[in-house]
Amino acid sequence: MAEVVYHRPDWFTARVINPLLKGVHRLGIGVAGSQTLAVRGRKSGEIRTNPVNPFELEGRTYLLAPRGTTQWVRNLRASGEGELRSGRATRRFRAIEVPDSEKLPLLRIYMEKWSWEVKGFLGIDADAPDQELRRIAPDHPAFELSFES
Fold first, then answer.
1. pTM of the prediction?
2. 44-47: long-range contacts at Cβ-Cβ below 8 A with a sequence spacing of 24 or more?
3. What are the structural domain ranges in the chain?
4. CB-based burial label for 106 (10 Å; 0-12, 13-18, 19+)
5. What is d(CA 58, CA 126) in angstroms, rounded to the nearest whole number?
């Protein structure tokens, strides 16, 4: 069985940065397009929230997990649905996991937009060659989101 990659947030990120981001999201302010993901916990059944960086590619919206198989990834896999929240806006969605073979353009655009924030977790630079992106693809789950009307 392959090793599951998960870069757990440090104390400062978990106790200061993430709560601060969720607070500004409640005001309708995103940092570089960030929003709050709300998804039902797979064990507790309670709604869990986490700041995420949704992005669009060719008219479709995606989430990518730069920290690997995080708790929100595990919860989203189990529930298959969630919400993106920003201010009073809440968008419900269904999520379909993207196969590793289709992640190259997702990783490329993610790195172009947020390498300043996440390159330490991905272990590559924004201008990394395609072969490097393909190498790390299995370690970074991605989901295509389909929004409810």
1. 0.88
2. none
3. 11-147
4. buried
5. 20
Note whether 28 and 87 are within 8 A (CB): yes
Token pair for 39? 């998804």
Contacts of 145 (CB under 8 A, 6+ apart): 54, 60, 61, 62, 63, 84, 93, 94, 95
pLDDT digits (tens, 9 = 90+) for 114-138: 877 776 777 788 888 999 999 999 9
Task: Give 51-87 as a DSSP string.
Answer: EE--EEETTEEEEE-TTBS-HHHHHHHHHSEEEEEET
SS3 of 44, please? coil
> At 16, phi and psi to the nearest 5?
-120, -60
Question: Does domain 11-147 correspond to CATH entry 3.20.20.70?
Answer: no
User: Which residues of the chain, if any, have pLDDT below 70?
Assistant: 1-3, 119
Nearest to 112 by CA among 33, 28, 7, 13: 33
Q: What is the pLDDT of residue 105?
A: 96
Tokens of 65: 């997990």
> What Cα–Cα distance (Å) separates residue 65 from each residue in 5, 89, 95, 123, 125?
10, 23, 13, 13, 16
